[in-house]
Amino acid sequence: MISDFPRPSPGGCGEQIEHEEYSLHEMSYMIRLADIAIKECETHKAASPRTLVVEVGELTGVLPHYLQKYYPAVIQGTKLEGSALEVIRVPSEAVCDECGQHYHPEKEMDYRCPACRSLKARFIHGRELSVREIRF
Ligand SMILES: [Zn+2]
What we know:
three-stranded antiparallel sheet; binds zinc ion
C-alpha cells in the first residue's frame, strides 16, 4: 500500500521549491544590489541606512524570499549592516506595437495581445532588478 513518491506533493505555493540553482542566482543578485547601495552610501557620505528598497520584476525569476534570506549575510560588516530589506515585486506589462494596448501577459512565452492577437509586443515592465530607494 505504501509507495515511494518521487517527490512531495505540491503545497500550492511555488515559492516553497528548494533549488540550489535558484539559491545561487538570488545570492549573486543580492550581492550586486547590496554593492550598488553601499557605493551609493559612500558617494554621498551617508549614515547607515535603515531600509534598502529593491524592485524585482516578475520576469526575472528572482524569488524575493531568497533575497530576504541572504540579505543579513551579504550586508554583514558593510555600511548596510543592521538595515532591513524591502522587496517590491513589479508585475510584467507588455504594450502591443499594433494597437497600443497595455496588458499583463500570463507568461513570457505567451504574450499575444488580448485585444488584436498580435505577437508584436514589447515588455515595458517585468525585467527590473534594481535599487529603488535607500531610506535613512
Ligand atoms: Zn494589440
